[in-house]
User: Fold these one by one.
Assistant:
Number 1:
Amino acid sequence: MKRAYNFNAGPASLPESVLKKAEQEWLNYKGTGMNVMEMSHRSKPYEEIHQQAQNLLRKLLQIPDNYEVLFLQGGASLQFTMVPMNLMEEGKKGQYVLTGAWSEKALKEAKKIGHAEAIATGKDNQYREIPSVSSLKTLEDGAYLHITSNNTIFGTQWHETPKVSIPLVADMSSDILCRPIDVASYGLIYAGAQKNLGPSGVTVVIVRKDLLERSKDSLPTMLDYRTHAKNDSLYNTPPTMAIYLLKLVLEWADSLGGTAALEKINKEKAALLYNVIDDSDGFYKGHAEASSRSLMNVTFTLKNQELTEAFLAEAKERGFTGLNGHRSVGGCRASIYNAVPLEHVEVLAQFMKEFKSR
Ligand code: PMP
């Protein structure tokens, strides 16, 4: 059976070895006679999975001990609400850097919870560029600064971490684990799993322990980070299947050599496509400015709409999936997350060259 050339933006490609391992363990997980989905979340085999997933994430991202690792539900979208609910402070504002549609949504939700504002925006330039770190305004009345580390729709990514005196919050949904990060530079990191970590259904939150003191007792129990921190993300039934698959993906990432090794492959994969774009004499036009280009989502259009459509139609015929740009912006987008094999990116680069020459 042939696997698709899967360039989906999320849910997205998973490592084939992970899917095979899940298949092997499908009917009888480690002699239990059950699928992981069929066992209690309070059972020993599940608790082990839960713990291993946490430990592996700690290892791969070198998460310091003064951070909690939480497995939540509701997607990254619920974090747009939970972050301000838990981190907002009296008389202070949630401050947001707008680098695309997802940061706009995060700000919109924060404004429903309390005071929040955009301190920089790339909208006037169609979100082609990440604002320079040095241009960010000072933040005397900020409760936290929120950034979107990778902009899935526009194909831009932060390549320098802002150094600020207030807690830095990052939505890393579409680039967590694509490269090493210094967790200590952040107050809170969140990421829906369905791009680089596993299937949809689980959201990872990494939060500095002292920030949990900001949460107020009036918060609904399930929306209070402290509930999940105190109960090791087992206050209620967690998404056990998603966490099991997360564990398998993390084992796979670890076996490859962790984030440094993944970054090296990701740079190689991204360069293959950006080089085709740059060497095409304007036949392919990249959306992002070169300095802000994403390692994960390569966005481009062709010379005109007719050619863009012809390219996408032919790509579909050849077995490429997910190359259409987000429905809000059109054009083309190749999402090349960790699990997309280098060989598949090579086939796409070759197809792009061939299409141009024809
Ligand atoms: N943030 C980013 C950067 C995303 O790419 C997405 C989903 N594509 C979201 C947030 C929303 O995630 P979810 O669907 O898990 O709520």
Number 2:
Amino acid sequence: EKEKLHRIASHQSITPDGKSVQLAANISSFKELEIALTSGATGVGLFRTEFLYMDRNRFPKEEEQYEVYASVAERLGSESLVIRTLDIGGDKQLDYFELPEEDNPFLGYRAIRISLVQKELFKTQLRAILRAGMHGNIKLLYPLITSVEEVRAANAILEEAKQELRSEGVPFASNMPIGVMIEVPAAVMIADLLAQEVDFFSIGTNDLLQFTLAVDRMNEEISHLYEPFHPALLRMLQSTVDAAKRHGIKVGVCGEMAGDLRALPIWLSLGVEELSMSAHSILPLKERLLKTRQQESLAIFRQLQYCRTSKEIIAHLESFLEKQE
Ligand code: PEP
Ligand code: MG
């Protein structure tokens, strides 16, 4: 079985009826990149940079960050590397950066909200990413976006970073594509507006589920309520992808659901361009992709839209998987 999976690592990731989907990896370090590449990943759809800031006693300097981003980009060659800016707060804390005690840290001071206040910290990271853009195919991704204003404010700081580099004569990638995470219901509802501000969307199903269902993703007590196949999420996904298509931008998915075999017909039917997941999920998913027709997926998706419960949705998706065996 393992050998079979390894053989397909070099196959193109395309359905029998010709729909190709990029299967990329989620990584948080250079080390994880190697594992991802041996697992058949094409590019990195999510580089979680917060891990560069963790397990140390001060913020990483521009140069240190630049070196990491540039070596990952270089290792990937022309394949794309999506770098997400700092996403701390919530479940991720830094020893040397005191965050306020909060009743609801997941709804609190975190991610892009910190970056827009700690401008210098943000700019340091942006400078490092812009410079690393000279070594490969880097795209920039902002986390936890809830409004158009946030995108514009982040872009304004990005412009400052570019101005600085320009005046210092430091080379950088001036046309780096910008994307936003769609991981909050507000972002789904204004996806048409956001699509006009950015080059791509990356749907973060982990947080999107947490916020859509009002279920803490870390809380074991209520983990049975954390249902990826809830009809509400299905509608969220559809409306996000519709908005993106209407405005001609690409959509990827980078939450855990991207690697869930059961969800594949959903992605094929919606027509997402990229699925980014943990390295270990890539080959099993690719094996499925190679035998799942987009046409069949469309038929299944139509059935899912009539389902009223997660149970029904899961039943449809699982019976499809079994039929394929
Ligand atoms: C997500 O929220 O789905 C996501 C991919 O990001 P993280 O798990 O790092 O919050
Ligand atoms: Mg998230």
